[in-house]
């Protein structure tokens, strides 16, 4: 596998950042499981990784005065957005958090986060060995 010198950690760096962001979303869902009206959120990790590792998309631009303008620069740049989760059985108070689903997603994300950390750790050890001439 060819290594690029300008990105020595490869895709692991944005993957770790996105896993951390997803971790925050899932933790927020669990913390608000009893908050009336709270809507559970998550992210499409594959799409977020595609956006993070692919070529930067050209920002949206209006070519006519009547075209809709993006609400914010992040929407124009195509940043991954937190999506609302559709519940299997919504509660009467409008809360869409299903604790068992959120805990399972959280545990899955923890395992993926740890795997990314291990990958980064081995990558740093390889780079360190190359620098030291081992």
From TrEMBL:
Residues 11-39 form the Flagellar basal body rod protein N-terminal domain. PROSITE patterns: FLAGELLA_BB_ROD (PS00588). The keyword Amino-acid biosynthesis does not apply. It holds the Pfam family Flg_bb_rod. The basal body constitutes a major portion of the flagellar organelle and consists of a number of rings mounted on a central rod. Structural component of flagellum, the bacterial motility apparatus. Part of the rod structure of flagellar basal body. This is Flagellar basal body rod protein FlgB.
